[in-house]
Design goal:
Belongs to the short-chain dehydrogenases/reductases (SDR) family. About 50% of the residues lie in helices and about 15% in strands. By secondary structure, the protein is an alpha/beta fold. Strands 3-2-1-4-5-6-7 form a 7-stranded parallel beta sheet, sandwiched between helices. The structure holds coenzyme A (COA).
Length: about 270
């Protein structure tokens, strides 16, 4: 049961990259349940089709599945063009597509580093840029980027992701200032460890998850619904004066200085 009004996003159109799985999927389902039509975008059709079908069946809202690689500007422009053509408008962009794996910096190849930068940082830029030119510049709207807290300190095994998410934060702040006057709010959410996600499976085994639960100040892992509720708030008019913010939802973990648990996850892998 949502605390938000059922029709909060009625007839708005939202593009969600990485919308087939994990956090992106949770956001897509919730926005549809609150009245939006969604377009979900991913490289992998198998990730998209079940989610788009579930959205249509459970909410009665339109949901478009778009196969595209956020690293490829031409594919992104074509996908954004389809959203406007088939769904009629584009009010909100959620940049949730991301790449991650644990790897000690000394072992990381140039292509491994570049691949994550390309997906997270260039992908966020490619999608935001295409949406701006196709719709947002003339009509206003909102962009929400999914960032992280890994770059607030030094997180072992995450040099590529830390660099990529720092770039996402920089994009968030810069575009908020440049595009704010055109009625476009740009914000980010920085989740801590969120259970039942691909990121969690890649970053910490169950033993680390159990330790995290004891260390996180609120004594639980994050849930997809935590990110979803914050998303609904930031996209709503209740957050009309919030622009260029990166809002952390991690139960206080990054304040407690315990991100070095990742060093243990790395050791447990080797
Ligand atoms: N450790 C070290 N290097 C790795 C790696 C790992 N676990 N996984 C991939 N790489 C390297 C590859 O070796 C390659 O570099 P190389 O050419 O020098 O060998 C480079 O990264 C690209 O790998 P590739 O598999 O070709 O890229 P891809 O585009 O198919 O996949 C990834 C992108 C690597 C980010 C992949 O993990 C992915 O698709 N992730 C999406 C889902 C995800 O990460 N979700 C969690 C988000 S929090």
């Amino acid at each position: 049961m949502s605390i938000f009004r059922d029709d909060l996003f009625r007839d708005q159109v939202v593009l969600i990259t990485g919308g087939g799985t994990g956090i992106g999927r949770g956001i897509a389902m919730a926005l549809a349940a609150h009245g939006a039509d969604t377009a979900i975008l991913s490289r992998t059709a198998e990730h998209l089709d079940p989610t788009a079908t579930e959205i249509r069946n459970s909410t009665g809202r339109r949901s478009l599945a778009l196969v595209a690689d956020v690293r490829q500007p031409e594919q992104v422009e074509a996908a954004v063009g389809r959203v406007v053509e088939e769904l009629g408008r584009l009010d909100i962009v959620i940049n949730a597509a991301a790449g991650n794996f644990l790897c000690p910096s000394a072992d990381l190849s140039p292509n491994g580093f570049g691949t994550v930068l390309d997906i997270d940082a260039k992908g966020t830029w490619n999608v935001s840029r295409a949406a701006y030119h196709a719709w947002l510049r003339d009509h206003g709207g909102r962009i929400l980027n999914i960032s992280a807290t890994l770059h607030y300190g030094g997180t072992p095994g995450q040099v590529h992701v830390a660099a990529a998410k720092a770039a996402v934060d920089a994009l968030t702040r810069t575009l908020a200032v440049e595009w704010g006057p055109q009625g476009i709010r740009v914000n980010a959410i920085a989740p801590g460890p969120i259970s039942d996600t691909e990121g969690a499976r890649r970053l910490f085994p169950d033993t680390i998850a159990d330790r995290l639960k004891r260390i996180i100040p609120v004594r639980r892992l994050g849930r997809i619904e935590d990110v979803v509720n914050l998303t609904l708030f930031l996209l709503s008019d209740a957050a009309a004066n919030i622009n260029g913010e990166i809002v952390v939802t991690d139960g206080g973990l990054c304040l407690s200085g315990n991100l070095n648990l990742f060093a243990e996850a790395l050791r447990s892998k080797s």
